[in-house]
Write a structure and sequence with these properties.
The protein is α/β, with parallel strands linked by helices. It has a single domain, classed as Rossmann fold, CATH 3.40.50. It is 43% helix and 23% strand. It contains nine helices and seven strands; from the N terminus they run αααβαβααββαβααββ. The protein has a seven-stranded mixed sheet with strand order 3-2-1-4-5-7-6, sandwiched between helices. β1, α4 and β2 form a beta-alpha-beta unit. The longest helix has 14 residues. The radius of gyration is 16 Å and the shape is globular. The protein starts with a helix and ends in a 5-residue tail after the last strand. The N terminus is likely disordered.
Length: 215
Amino acid sequence: MTGTSTFLDQCRKPAGWWGHITLRRMNWSHSRLTDWGLSHICVAKESTVLDIGCGGGRTVGKLAAMATAGKVWGIDHADASVAAATKTNARLIDEARVQIRRSSVSQLPFADNTFDVVTAVETHFFWPDLPADVREILRVMKPGATLVIIAEVYKGAATRTARLCEKYAPLTGMKLLSADEHRDLLSSAGFIDVRVIEKKDSGWISAIGRKASIS
C-alpha cells in the first residue's frame, strides 16, 4: 500500500526527483487518453482555453495546436508541474500563445466569462472540493463555453486499475465517481447539455458540459 500511496501522492502533487519522473510519464502515458477525450469537443482556432492541472504540459501543447489563433493557459498547484509545463511549452510561451501559472482550481485567478474551452485531464479526483471547484470553473467560462473532464479510471469501470483505485480510495483520498455521478456533478453545478462518454474496454471516461448562453 505504501508504494501505491506514494505514487498517488506524486500524481496529486509532483515534487522532487520522483515528481520529475512522474511528470515525464504523465506526458507519455496520458497522450492517447487526451486525444480520445478531446475528440469529443470542438476547439476553434480562435479559442481561449484553460487546462486545469496541466502537469507536464503536453495537453497544453495539443490545445495550442488546435487554437492556432487563440491562447492557452495551463494551471497547476505544484511547482514541479509549473516548471515542467513551462519547459515543455517554451517556444509557445515565447510566441505569447501559451501561459503557465501556479494556481488552485478552487480559486482561479481569472475574471468571469474568460474561456471558450476548459479541460481537465486526470486531475479532478484530487480536487479539494469537487462541487465547489466545478462551480468555480463555470464562473470563468464564457456563455456557451465547454468543459471536458477526461480520466483513465472511474468508479464501476471493469479494469484492474479501476478496481484497485476503488479498493484504496478510502485510504488515498482519491475521489472516484461513477458515470452517473460525473453527470450529476456537472448538472448540479449548472452545466447544460451534459454528456458522459465511456470507453469501456480501456476504462476511460469523458464528462462534457456547456455553460448556458445568455438569452
